[in-house]
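Researcher: Let's try something more involved. This one mixes different molecule types, so please make sure each is placed in the same coordinate frame as the others.
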Amino acid sequence: MAFCDLKPVSVTDENTGVTFIIGSVFSVCSYGADCPKVFSWGMAKTVTVTRGGILFATDTAQYIVKSRLFSSPDEFLRAVAIIECAYKKYGFEYVHEKRLLPLKSLYREFSQGTDAYIGESEIDGNDAANAFISLMNIKLVKLLWLIALLIMLLTFGILHYFVGVTRDNLLYFIPISAASGGIITLLVYIICHSVAKAKYFRIADCDPAADMNITFVISKFGFAACESSTYQGRDLVPWNEADYFIETDKIFIIYKNNAPIAFIPKKAFGKKFAGGAADILALKLEQR
Amino acid sequence: MGVIKSEKIETADGSVLLVSVTDGAGIIGTCSAGHIPMNSDEASVTRLFYMGNDPVVRLVCPNHGSRRTDKLVSLCPGFEGSDIKLREALTECFDRLTRGESPEAGLHDLFPLLQDGVYAVYTADYYPTDGGGAFFWGAYNISHEVRATAERNRVIGNERTYKPCFLIPSEPPGHYVPKTKLMTDEAVKSRRCQGIVYHLSGLFSVLLKGHHGAVSCVEKGLPFKCAVIEKITEPYTDAPLPPAPPKEGEQPEAPAPVREGITGFRSPSVKIPLELFPRDMLMNILEGRTEYKPEHFNTLLKKLNTVRKKSVTNNVIPRNVLEKCERMPDSEMMESTCAISGLSDAQLEALLSGDTEYEGSVMISPNLYSSIITACSYLQFTDKNRFIDFAINAMSRPELSATHEYIARRASAIPNSAKLYKFFKDAADSGDVAFEKISAAANRYIADYEAADNN
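Model: All components are placed in one shared frame. Result:
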């Protein structure tokens, strides 16, 4: 099992005196109690992970481990990784926000092999947002031309309806129509940009790993994009877990079911090796 | 150096010695090696048992590492003894145990070399076989599925505890030296303990020390008593017991409050409720990991595919030892013994008449054929005479023909039984098609019996 060596995380709520241990089992040690309550992950009905904390619910009880109780973000991420691995094994209901990085339940433990490209960097929010935007541009370009043309015709028609087109004003009306088409199209374009950027940053805000140092691996057995503090060196998402990838000048985006599951910046591998990583990606996945 | 704490606790099943290891060196233990391309299919997970820098046993766990599936077991390069610290600790511990010291005192130097965790330590008799009649030392040269290696045994079920009783060697078969055996032939007679084993999976443990002694013990017919180290990792949940029926004139007992969470942690042979654990030991389990990779994991991986230098040897295990092993109880017998507490004659009669239930409860399993097979294995281990009667009865009933071949094979392992000879002889002479499935086993038995009779 991937991430099987992760050390359990123990956090104590100083206010209530309750210690939670998230490991191969979920334990609740109340202050002064003779014996802790211990739950196997198979007993969990729902586990919810948000930036605010972790909610562990069984049929009869609910426990909340607030994220502020964790001594560092690394500990919180380790706890989340343990939960995601348990989710894969026991299949309880796992509720989580959108992620920039693949869930740990997608990983399997592999030898990386000799042809692996390994890099480490943070995901640059602007790079990823620009990647979103350039993808959007490809989709929008025809639509924007159409919008521009329609607005031009509409403006021309309005002017003709209210003012009336004559030989004298025709030379004014054509540039006015073209300008209004261009301006409105530009506005639409700016709004779409903002939406794309906001969309990325909304995902990034939900993912506690967004600001962390990330280890990226591309090998012939699979890929990885995982917080460096959690990554153990032998965990990969097999290629059959992904559908296709898109390459921009700064980033690879890997998709599954038409949703991005991993953002892999080229700078993580360095200029020299980004081409090799791209070759493996192209061999293993369809490029769109 | 690890911090070792040991404590004897009293459970419902008797007293258990628990040993807690903190900051252990972790040079003996198991770890996951994940999916190894080229060595296993996509859905298999590999686990390693290692000693020092040597990978010793490779377990390929099919079905994504399912705990209910038997494993493929093969011997890796094996313990070469190059780790002096480990070799000396094993020798020292073994010497102490053979002199009659308790497992707690005898294994004291070995505990700091284990991975962190809580272990149950006890002594038990082992059969030095692979659970299929082959002497353990040479049985795992080729990777193959070994019955009863699943962590959750389908026959025994999840509720019962069982004592592992079969062996996997830690030394390669090439390490067998007849001259050493000559020395152990004498030594085993006076030894209080014949080996040290570490539980690996299901009914199987790895023999850390005492390989030559095992050969001598089988040859001399001595029990192979070992000091066993078993890691306690698995959570278990017992259903609450129903309240006892009230006596006349008494108020019925209120049902016990439903407990939140698991009941305790267990290893194959012990179940320990949470409240019986010393606090620090319980925290060691909760804050520890089931197994983890040692620092030298990459060295182990590199060695994993190396071929043993002495995989072919002229030093052959004596023939009489191999023959005696063939007659030892096999894994099916041990599984059924762990699964069944007892079978009365009335229950056996009910089984033969096609009932799987007796007085309102399922005797063995809701499946009739499975019940008969398990009952056969159980009787063969516990009472040979009852087994022979049951086998003959079952083979005489055409409606149980699906079990005939299995029962005939089991019965033919009982040498020189006049009852069986008579039954097989009658069956062979009758030419009845109902006995078609047992004819091969019957003819072989008749020939063997008559040959033994003539001699």
